[in-house]
Every structure is written in C-alpha cells, then in structure tokens.
Design goal:
It is built from 8 helices and 10 strands. With 232 residues, the chain is α/β, with parallel strands linked by helices.
Length: 232
C-alpha cells in the first residue's frame, strides 16, 4: 500500500484510504446480498418479526466462527437443527454463506457481531449447543481477557445455553487448552469429555468434522485438543 511521510511518521495516503474504504464497503455489500446473512440490527429485527423462529428446533451456535465452513458441514449432518454462525468479520462469514447457498443448506444463518453482543442474538436459555473452534489463543498473559474461554465470556455462554446445553471446544494450542480447562473449572463448569488427541479418540464422528485450520494442523501432524462442558 502506498504511504506518505508526515513529520517523519508513515501515514496512509488519502487515495489509499478511499481504496480501503471501497474494499470494505464491497465486502459488506457481498455479505448483505445473501438472505442468510445478517448484521446484528437486522438479526434482532428478524427475530422480533419471527418470534417463535428459534423455539421450533434446537439451536446450535458457533462463536468466532471465521469462515463457518465447519458449521455448514454440521448443518448438513443435522437438518433438524438451526445453526447460527457468529463472527465480527463479514468477509469470513461470507465464505461459509456462499458454500451453504451452493450446497442448498437452508438451516444455517450468519450473523456479524461481537461476542459481547451474544445476548442480543440469542435469548436466555435458548441455545442447545455452542462451538468454539480454533479461537485465537492470545498467548500473552496480559491478553487473557480476550480469549473466548475467559470467565466473562463463559458467563455469557451460560446465560444463553438451555438447561441441557453443552459447549464444545477445539484447539491445537496446548497452552490455550490448559488455560481453558482451568477457566471452565474455576467458573463452575463440569467437564464431560476431554481428550488431547481428538482424531485418535473414539468420540463420535460429528466432533471430528474439520475446520479449514484443523485440516491444515492435522496435515502438519498436530494433535487436536477437544472438550465438552456444561455449566452447573
């Protein structure tokens, strides 16, 4: 990207800003053109006008879904459920939405939102399952508050999960898995299933559906850590 110098500091030029802005608007436009894709406000309005929409079938959510290709595959395996992929990056979600459209998967929706806004997306006790797949490990101790298994996020998940709800967590990071186990237990969650090598375990095949990251990690010979937990 072309840069200009002002008082010895590099800044983005006006032309580059316009180009970047156009790219961003283009990404939003592509996301918004698909009927399964929602900005947060649009989703809230949609739920208001379809009051029983999320009550008719079990709801499965992926938080920090990225491209959501994993959740698309889960939706194909369980047509009796509703799947909602949540991520702050619309261009990532757009990839999963396009895949769902091409493969005629109609029981999945894509919502652009921050994790902190989950209670606007889902009502209390309404979610059957939550997936966290290959979340950013934020390896520095000072960044622990950004990890999706940090205590403030676990409280949000507990609020939206129903009484029989479960949370599934996948990561290739040893340190994040160790931190997450401690975080769940500290917050009073019960660990139902735990393995440090998912793909060598005898767990159900639906848990072994791979994300794009996961396929790469497995190809590199890395073990995939997995756990299922529920709040007490």
């Amino acid at each position: 990207m072309k840069k200009e110098k002002i008082d010895g500091a590099k800044v983005t030029g006006a032309v580059d800003f316009i180009i970047s802005r156009k790219r961003k608007l283009y990404k939003f436009a592509r996301f918004n053109e698909l009927r399964s894709c929602f900005q947060l406000g649009e989703w809230v309005d949609f739920i208001k006008t379809h009051s029983n929409f999320l009550d008719k079938q079990p709801v499965v959510a992926e938080i920090g879904a990225g491209t959501a290709v994993f959740l698309v595959e889960q939706a194909k395996l369980s047509p009796e459920k509703i799947f909602v992929a949540v991520d702050v990056k619309s261009d990532r979600l757009h990839q999963g939405a396009r895949k769902a459209q091409e493969e005629k998967v109609t029981n999945i929706y894509f919502v652009r939102s921050r994790v902190e806004e989950l209670v606007q997306i889902f009502s209390s006790n309404s979610v059957f399952e939550i997936w966290l797949t290959f979340s950013d490990p934020y390896p520095r101790k000072s960044d622990a508050k950004h990890r999706l298994t940090y205590k403030k996020y676990l409280k949000l998940y507990q609020e939206i999960l129903n009484k029989d709800g479960r949370l599934h967590f996948k990561t290739d990071s040893d340190s994040l898995f160790e931190y997450s186990l401690a975080s769940f237990r500290e917050c009073g969650w019960q660990i139902l299933t735990e393995t440090e090598d998912l793909h060598s375990s005898d767990l159900p095949e639906k848990y072994k559906v791979m994300t794009s990251y996961e396929a790469r990690f497995v190809g590199e010979g890395k073990n995939i850590h997995f756990l299922t937990a529920k709040p007490e």
